[in-house]
Amino acid sequence: MQIVRALDQLRRSMADLRRGGKTVALVPTMGALHHGHLTLVEEARRRADRVIVSIFVNPTQFGPNEDLAAYPRRAEADAALLRAAGCDLLWSPDVAEMYPHGFRTSVTVAGITAMLEGAARPGHFDGVATVVGKLFGQVRPDVALFGEKDYQQLRVVTRMAADLDLAVEVIGIATVRDADGLALSSRNAYLSPAERAAAAALPAALRTAAEGIAAGAPVAKMLAEAQARLEQAGFGPIDYVALCDAATLEPVETADRDCRLLVAARIGGTRLIDNLAVPAR
Ligand code: AMP
Predict the structure, then answer these.
(1) 124 an active-site residue?
(2) Coil vs helix vs strand at 62
(3) Where is 194: in which H helix or E strand?
(4) 163 and 196: one domain?
(5) How many domains are there within the chain?
(6) Residue 30 C-alpha to ligand 1 middle, in angstroms?
């Protein structure tokens, strides 16, 4: 596995890797890799001849009071995991390589970024769309893989790629969970043992609400019960517990179309997000 930190080297390496018409898959990450990331890499290997993983903790998608400085960085362990997973090239630029002096462009995806994470984290999706647009321009992948764990991000990136005629197929991968249901996340490393145990209430509350709504229970009641269960388990503040149209993420009051149930809540100092599909009744 090559480890590349400079854009001119990336361009040379990509030309080599593509020789003979080989197809390329990209898995963008912020590192501190876990089994969820590695599942994306496995699927990337099935979908393309060459697998590129990027690790870049993107400062522009963090708010001023967020965890940019504390975000876990484990370069050596990540490289070893990717080598074992069959990654061909690790693209790991530093901030100055990604945003050189004079950088002035920002990508905004309207509408779908207004709610949920977009409302709770102003500017977050401009940072995401801009860096993912740059990664697509740098690597020029045939396919790119993103986790449903960050469901709104998946929808935003899919929209951007379509709107900007980027010749990349964006593929969503089901959320990988621990045995107790908690979605794997680099941020789980922040949880104390007690918080980690209590955090299992998040997927449990989601599942109960999703199953209730799918069975015809009133949406508002199921959302309120999920919220109460999270509060009882020690979560707070809760940014949202919402049922949304699975495509547009507009809030919905009845599950008369394919929906997504989405949650963001803090436990201790750690903000966790999760979501589940709620199929049309
Ligand atoms: P991150 O490093 O958190 O930016 O995540 C990089 C990619 O991995 C994103 O597309 C995430 O949605 C995806 N991802 C993170 N956690 C999981 C998980 N538990 N299951 C599946 N994909 C995940």
Answers:
(1) no
(2) coil
(3) helix 193-198
(4) no
(5) 2
(6) 9
Residue with tokens 């991968």: 173
Instruction: Write the pLDDT tens digit of every residue in 140-193.
Output: 999 999 999 999 999 999 999 999 999 999 999 999 999 999 999 999 999 999
Only one residue has tokens 């697998």, namely 51
Q: Kindly name the residue from 34, 35, 37, 124 that is annotated as catalytic.
A: 37
Ligand 1 neighbours, Cβ below 6 Å, are 29-30, 36-37, 39-40, 146-147, 149-150, 173, 175-176, 183-186
Place of tokens 């020029």: 140
CA of 221 to the centre of ligand 1 (A): 30
How far apart are the CA of 146 and the centre of ligand 1, in A?
7
Q: Domain range spanning residue 205?
A: 186-276
Cα 19 → chain centroid? 30
Is residue 93 domain-shared with residue 20, that is, in the same domain? yes
Give the closest residue (by CA) to ligand 1 atom 5.
29
Task: Answer yes or no: do 15 and 150 share one domain.
Answer: yes
One domain for residues 237 and 156 = no
N- to C-terminal Cα distance for the chain? 47
* CATH number for position 30: 3.40.50.620
State mean pLDDT over 216-224. 97
